[in-house]
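Work Package 3 (structural annotation) set out to generate three-dimensional models for the target panel prioritized at the project kickoff. During this period the team completed the workflow that converts sequence records into discrete structure tokens, so that structures can be stored uniformly alongside our sequence database. As a representative example, we reproduce one entry of 434 residues exactly as it appears in the project archive.
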Amino acid sequence: MKIAMIGTGYVGLVSGVCFSDFGHEVVCVDKNPDKIDKLKAGEVPIFEPGLEALMAKNVAAGRLSFTLDMAEAVAGADAVFIAVGTPTRRGDGHADLTYVMGAAAEIAGAMTGYTVVVTKSTVPVGTNRDVARAIKKANPQAQFDVASNPEFLREGAAIDDFMRPDRVVVGVESNKARKVMADVYKPLFLREFPIVYTGLESAEMIKYAANAFLATKITFINEIASLCEKVGADVKDVAKGMGMDGRIGNKFLHAGPGYGGSCFPKDTKALARIGQDHAVPMQITETVIKVNEEIKRRMLDKIVDLCDGQINGKTIAVLGVTFKPNTDDMRDAPSLTIVPALVGGGAKVKVCDPQGAREGEALLPGVKWAENAYQATQGADALVILTEWNEFRALDLGKIARKMAHPRMADLRNIYSQAEVLEAGFESYAGVGR
């Protein structure tokens, strides 16, 4: 099959590369000449384990290409995927559909025969029908169907998620479109991964409902962690006991500094707005959004308390600034709240992150970047672990304690136990929910 992928951001690029690995002919389109030039040269503009090698493999096989030319990509395509950004619209919390609708209009003028136009971007309920109307308006003779195919890719594990999904959700309304989508995902069907066919609105809603529920689990355990600190319980034990219940499960029950990233913040806000627009307030989701912001500020208070209530003039080492490990994504990361507050409070902040510097240097002015954890902690008055990169899980704590002016640790990911930190020579330790 021939597939056109409109947009080479995180979702578009990973999806396009993986579809080509299924054996399809995939053309990825973007309006950014620099990005297309880099992709043609084999450079991947995002950090995702395994993506560069998989991309190179399929380019070499002749199944994957990149272009600025929409008409070239769409002409003759069996399916055209819209995978452009839908950021939160400033001022009202709605998903900004400017890029989606713009892509739909361009696709309309480039189609040369029957085509399934597939929305992979996360969009509010009703958007696929708007896309259909936009295409029909721009090209009344167009032969097409629309489909909704939301993505469920975790940054840092996206290729595995695509190749071994929990489920594939496909919203379609015609047998012809369903057949095309079945052919697109045939390799997964043959390996018996579940493919869920629904109507357009249900597919759109599944994406928001799933992300809002996961954000709720994270926020719930973070609130429980705060209570654990007051009553003397250990949130890790509590989460383990909860997670053994099959109705609850153990995933997304890790206490920390709050959720961030490209999906949960914008999708929870968008779902809240959809509810308001339809006079069905999403009260749980609205509370999750509010509490998640409070949790980030609570982490800042924890750091200040660790420094005896005064951070002005203190040197603080921060390990990890991306919103999660194995990605370079800084979008809505807790570090974007915590680190500027430390700098604003007069602290001298030294930062170390394996992939965060590319975006972080512009987003976190006033900090000093270190090559590794040992360089970052030299002479520091406190150490803060914000992102649980693997290289931060087995540090030589004794060596770090000796390097620091005042060996104190705020472990906001509960990587270490208080006992091992104090035994290594630290003066004090603060975890989350312990």
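The two ends are 54 Å apart (CA to CA).
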